[in-house]
């Protein structure tokens, strides 16, 4: 979706959002017994997080109280998905483990921000979600909190939606 050597542009995001609206997007449903899967980092197992968060480093968000960073990247999948890295306090740290939170995103995940407690807010395929991600990585249902055609990262001309 995004060129790994350059930033996301508004045209690419809008094109992918249009493709997402043409499809039936399944809700993010999980069982209460599920946990987020860990990612096989492969050749990146000794790499700092900055080498993994290459698509959208401005969307990486450090947890205010725990050594965790939520971020989006396409390094492990075909599109920008949401991940949480444990054991890191900055993008220059090497994570102990990385957990994949979303999958099958069409336009991708951007605008990742930790909120109160262990809740993370993010834009995904034209909607803004809030999701509880505890240190145990127990999976919870995301809550839709807003509808926004274009993520804040891609807004131009005074913040048009």
List its traits.
161 residues, single chain, four-stranded antiparallel sheet, 1 helix, mainly beta
Element order: H for helix, E for strand: HEEEEEEEE
Any low-confidence stretches, pLDDT <50, length ≥5? 1-5, 17-27
Strand content: 25-35%
What's the overall geometry?
globular
Rg estimate, integer Å: 15 Å
The domain tally reads 1
How many separate helices?
A: 1
Q: From the helix content, strand content and strand pairing, which structural class follows?
A: mainly beta
**Span between N and C termini?**
21 Å
Strand order of the largest sheet: 1-2-3-4
Fraction of helical residues: under 10%
Mean pLDDT: 82
Instruction: Profile the largest sheet.
Output: 4 strands, antiparallel
The count of DSSP E runs of length 2 or more, i.e. the number of strands, is 8
Care to give the gist of this entry?
This protein is mostly beta strands.
Word description of this protein:
This protein is mainly β and 161 residues long. The protein has one domain. Helix content is 8%, strand content 25%. The protein has one helix and eight strands, in the order H-E-E-E-E-E-E-E-E. It has one helix spanning 10-22, and strands spanning 61-62, 68-73, 81-86, 97-100, 109-114, 119-124, 127-132, 143-147. The strands form two sheets. Strands 1-2-3-4 form a four-stranded antiparallel sheet, with no helix packed on it. A hairpin with a 2-residue loop joins strand 6 and strand 7. It starts with 9 loop residues before the first helix and ends in a 14-residue tail after the last strand. 34% of the residues are buried.
């Amino acid at each position: 979706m995004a060129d790994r050597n350059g930033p996301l542009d508004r045209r690419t995001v809008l094109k992918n959002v249009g493709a997402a609206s043409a499809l039936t997007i399944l809700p993010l449903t999980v069982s209460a017994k599920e946990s987020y899967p860990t990612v096989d980092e492969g050749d990146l197992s000794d790499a700092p997080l900055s080498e993994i968060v290459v698509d959208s480093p401005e969307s990486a968000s450090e947890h205010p109280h725990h050594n965790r960073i939520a971020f989006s990247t396409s390094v492990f999948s075909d599109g920008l998905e949401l991940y949480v890295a444990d054991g890191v306090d900055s993008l220059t740290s090497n994570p102990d483990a990385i957990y994949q939170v979303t999958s099958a995103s069409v336009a991708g995940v951007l605008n990742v921000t930790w909120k109160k407690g262990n809740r993370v807010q993010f834009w995904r395929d034209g909607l803004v979600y809030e999701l509880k991600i505890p240190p145990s990585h127990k999976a919870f249902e995301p809550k839709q909190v807003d509808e926004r055609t274009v993520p804040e990262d891609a807004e131009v001309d005074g913040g048009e939606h």
